[in-house]
Write a structure and sequence with these properties.
The chain is mainly alpha-helical. The protein is built from five helices and no strands. Helix 1 packs antiparallel against helix 2.
Length: 126
């Protein structure tokens, strides 16, 4: 049985989303641990940075549309953080990476939601 074109598009954006998700998480960790280590406990600050991203992760791995919707809301905070980092330190790459990964993850998540929902409706038709 071949996969319909709508499901192929959804699968492609799902993979892109997972890559951007990992890239954003690694960028946040690299900023906290190596590039701009804050005063205080680096481990607790890393946990606070990554916790909002990790909340929808079980649903994301199950390809849940609602989890991707919540991820899009959560990504607004990471986007703002990246833009602020860009504004105050434009010469450092971390602000660029965080902003780029958050935007790419947002767009790929929205496109995955679109194509997965359409593929589901297509399969439900008699």
């Amino acid at each position: 049985m071949s996969v319909n074109p709508l499901q192929q598009k959804a699968n492609a954006y799902y993979r892109i989303g997972l890559i951007c998700y990992a890239g954003l998480a690694l960028s946040l960790l690299a900023e906290t641990w190596w590039f701009n280590p804050p005063p205080g406990s680096v481990l607790s600050i890393s946990c606070l940075q990554l916790l909002p991203m990790l909340l929808p992760l079980p649903g994301i791995l199950k390809r849940g549309l609602r989890a991707f919707s919540w991820l899009c809301f959560i990504l607004c905070f990471y986007f703002i953080s990246g833009v602020l980092d860009l504004w105050f330190r434009p010469h450092q790459p971390q602000g660029w990476l965080i902003t780029a990964f958050s935007v790419l993850l947002f767009v790929s998540s929205m496109l995955f939601i679109r194509w997965q929902a359409q593929a589901g409706r297509h399969l439900a038709q008699p």
